[in-house]
């Protein structure tokens, strides 16, 4: 019995020793880089043991050829092989101007679990198969071609430097075999090319990882979704008309950089990035842009958040949308164009004629054309939570001469915002940049203003109209005017309009016909003076004076409440309406229960076009919360409501 057991153990040992190899198999002998055609670098199996090969393997002399873990085999002569296996952490390198031909043998004819590095080419004959679940790396000119098949498997990596990437048809690019498949679970790396390159139509619609290391740009040939990682080592992704989508949970690493040159967009990205915009009308721009470079004049398609905008050579048409500089705590919006922009913010205080400013100084440079700009400043409520503040401006370098621009309502909670509209430029005519800052004001205001508007009348006069919510210890009002948005150079064109000093709503008007020049746009400010001599400033409102009587707007033929704008709004909304005749008007803000939140106006108005602004305050001067409201307009013969949405 013991004899039989000994024989069985011996047979098992021999069986285990020969399992996985047969006569004529070859394997690499050494670790490190070796030349394929040197026989001493190979071992062959003689049926019972591995011995040093007498000649390098090829398809005619070898059975299975294995490049073992740790070894690099360099193909430095044209060679034919089949049943070639590249193990984990092993490298098959086909040198420049050399071709490795894969013949049709049994099983997979080339299996790459490690790495295939192609400086030259691989030709796959008819019927032969190549599978890669490791890494295959192409130079700009190297290809896998031929009448056989190629498969990139899940978990594999394809790295190409070919300007055409990988092609679905095999007509161009790195893989040109008769049949080919590229797994959606593989990684695709686009490396240094001699010029900007393309991903190619062979890139699946979904990939595991997309890696950009071009030094140039790689253009998307089709839309793609990345499930695990979008990685930037060097270069940018050029979108064209295609969509790049980051699946939920996908990460982004490196210096993220996109070129918008068509209708293509990016979605699902939650990382700041550089964006270069070439197309004049991009479909959308994602927020969180670190650097925005304009390579053409562009029209903004949506609100964006940025850290820097380069528009030295081209203009940015705001198109009514908002550009927020998140780090600088400043935002710009309007129907205008911006060029040569510079924005900065420092945490410094300033001395003005009304005391020390908050710990913020903004610096702006640039030009505003084809419209006016609204600037929105943001600051923490720890600086001031006053419902109204004063805004000041000076030339950079002019340390003492702060110009008072006016008194403005604020909004927000932990972060407060205040907006100044009607801005005509971000620096002076001599290209000296502006500083801006904010000072607090007394909370017990002598006047709370509800509206301030200007109206062009048929008799060539301009009617200035304002409504106060309450007044106390107020001497009265003056009207200031200028043909530019510069209050410090404005003229006082009215006598003192005495105040009513009532705790309820009061309305005032003034008719301006003093030296008005056709074709000019006029800016008006309302100056309030209290009994102690303290001055408050509101405005400006702007209106264009017609070139001839025919240019003046005709009296509306019907009375109607128009669509408020912007809507949704924050912090204020403009409410336009037309009156076909002189009439009493009541304009109120009501909540969804029908309760009056704010009585904006209750009195007589002349026929014409009117705009009244609601600042989001109720009749007690308290700021209302986010929600839906209705504006209700009533005359003796007309009643209408419009929906408003306040968002904070």
Short summary:
The chain has 648 residues and is mainly beta. The chain contains 1 helix and 57 strands. A hairpin with a 2-residue loop joins strand 35 and strand 36.
Structure characterization notes:
- It contains 1 helix and 57 strands.
- It is 3% helix and 51% strand.
- The chain has a 28-stranded mixed β-sheet that branches.
- It has 648 residues and is mostly beta strands.
Task: Give me the count of strands.
Answer: 57
Largest beta-sheet characterization: 28 strands, mixed
Q: Tally the helices: what do you get?
A: 1
Q: SS-based structural class?
A: mainly beta
List the helices and strands and how they pair.
Elements: H1 2-18, E1 26-28, E2 32-35, E3 42-45, E4 50-52, E5 65-67, E6 71-75, E7 79-81, E8 84-86, E9 91-94, E10 99-102, E11 110-112, E12 115-118, E13 121-124, E14 129-132, E15 135-138, E16 144-152, E17 157-160, E18 175-182, E19 187-191, E20 197-198, E21 206-219, E22 224-238, E23 244-246, E24 251-253, E25 257-260, E26 266-267, E27 273-277, E28 289-294, E29 298-299, E30 304-310, E31 316-317, E32 322-325, E33 330-333, E34 337-346, E35 351-352, E36 355-356, E37 361-369, E38 373-380, E39 388-395, E40 403-412, E41 415-423, E42 434-440, E43 447-456, E44 462-471, E45 474-482, E46 491-492, E47 497-498, E48 506-512, E49 521-530, E50 535-544, E51 560-561, E52 573-579, E53 583-590, E54 596-605, E55 608-614, E56 627-635, E57 638-646
Parallel strand pairs: 1-5, 2-6, 5-8, 6-9, 7-10, 8-11, 9-12, 10-13, 11-14, 12-15, 13-16, 14-16, 15-17, 16-18, 17-19, 19-21, 20-21, 21-22, 22-23, 22-24, 22-25, 23-26, 25-27, 27-28, 28-30, 29-31, 30-32
Antiparallel strand pairs: 1-3, 3-4, 31-34, 32-33, 33-38, 34-37, 35-36, 37-42, 38-41, 39-40, 39-42, 40-41, 43-44, 44-48, 45-46, 45-47, 45-49, 49-50, 51-52, 52-55, 53-54, 53-56, 56-57
């Amino acid at each position: 019995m013991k004899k039989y057991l000994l024989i069985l153990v011996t047979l098992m040992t021999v069986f285990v020793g020969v399992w996985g190899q047969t006569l004529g198999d070859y394997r690499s002998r050494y670790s490190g880089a070796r030349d394929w055609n040197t026989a001493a670098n190979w071992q062959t199996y003689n049926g019972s043991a591995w011995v040093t090969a007498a000649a390098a393997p090829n398809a005619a002399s070898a059975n299975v050829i294995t490049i073992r873990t740790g070894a690099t085999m360099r193909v430095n002569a044209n060679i034919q092989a089949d049943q070639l296996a590249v193990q984990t952490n092993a490298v098959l390198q086909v040198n420049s101007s050399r071709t490795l031909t894969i013949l049709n043998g049994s099983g997979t004819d080339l299996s790459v679990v490690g790495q295939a590095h192609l400086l030259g080419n691989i030709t796959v004959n008819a019927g032969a198969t190549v599978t890669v679940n490791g890494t295959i790396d192409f130079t700009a000119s190297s290809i896998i071609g031929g009448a056989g098949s190629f498969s990139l498997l899940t978990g594999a990596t394809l790295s190409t430097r070919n300007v055409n990437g990988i092609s679905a048809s095999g007509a161009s690019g790195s893989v040109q075999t008769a049949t080919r498949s590229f797994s959606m679970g593989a990684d695709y790396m686009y490396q240094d090319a001699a010029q900007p390159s393309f991903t190619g139509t062979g890139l699946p619609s979904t990939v595991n990882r997309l890696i950009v290391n071009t030094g140039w740009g790689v253009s998307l040939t089709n839309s793609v979704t990345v499930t695990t990682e979008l990685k930037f080592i060097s270069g940018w992704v050029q979108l064209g008309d295609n969509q790049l989508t980051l699946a939920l949970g996908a990460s982004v690493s490196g210096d993220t950089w996109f070129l918008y040159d068509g209708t293509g967009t990016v979605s699902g990205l939650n990382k700041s990035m550089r964006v270069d915009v070439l197309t004049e009308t991009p479909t959308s721009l994602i927020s969180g842009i670190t650097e925005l470079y304009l390579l053409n004049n562009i029209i903004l398609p949506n609100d964006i958040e940025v850290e820097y905008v380069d528009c030295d050579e081209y203009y940015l048409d705001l198109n009514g949308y908002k550009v927020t500089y998140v780090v600088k705590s400043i935002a710009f919006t309007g129907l205008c164009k911006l060029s040569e922009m510079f924005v900065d913010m420092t945490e410094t205080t300033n001395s003005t004629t009304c005391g020390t400013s908050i710990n913020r100084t903004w610096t702006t440079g640039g030009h505003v054309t084809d419209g006016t700009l609204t600037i929105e400043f943001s600051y923490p409520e720890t600086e001031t939570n006053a419902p109204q503040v004063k805004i000041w401006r000076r030339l950079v370098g002019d340390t003492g001469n702060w110009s008072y621009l006016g008194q403005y309502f604020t909004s927000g909670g932990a972060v407060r915002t205040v907006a100044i509209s009607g801005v005509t430029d971000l620096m002076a005519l001599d290209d000296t940049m502006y500083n801006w800052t904010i000072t607090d004001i007394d909370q017990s205001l002598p006047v709370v203003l509800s509206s301030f508007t200007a109206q062009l009348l048929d008799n060539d006069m301009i009617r200035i109209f304002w409504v106060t919510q309450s007044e106390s210890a107020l001497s009265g009002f003056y009207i200031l005017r200028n043909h530019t948005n510069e209050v410090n150079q404005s003229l006082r064109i009215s006598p003192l309009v005495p105040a009513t000093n009532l705790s309820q709503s009061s309305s005032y008007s003034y008719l301006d016909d003093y030296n008005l020049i056709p074709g000019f746009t006029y800016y008006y400010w309302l100056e309030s003076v209290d009994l102690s001599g303290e001055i408050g400033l509101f405005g400006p409102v702007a209106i264009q004076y017609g070139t001839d009587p025919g240019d003046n707007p005709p009296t509306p033929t019907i009375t109607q409440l128009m669509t408020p704008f912007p809507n949704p709004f924050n912090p204020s909304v403009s409410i336009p309406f037309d009156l076909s005749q002189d009439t009493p008007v009541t304009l109120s803000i009501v909540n969804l229960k029908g309760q009056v939140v704010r009585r904006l106006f209750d009195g007589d108005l002349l026929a014409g076009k009117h705009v009244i602004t609601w600042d989001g305050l109720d009749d007690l001067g308290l700021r209302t919360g986010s929600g839906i409201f209705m504006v209700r307009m009533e005359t003796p013969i007309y009643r209408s409501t419009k929906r408003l949405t306040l968002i904070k």
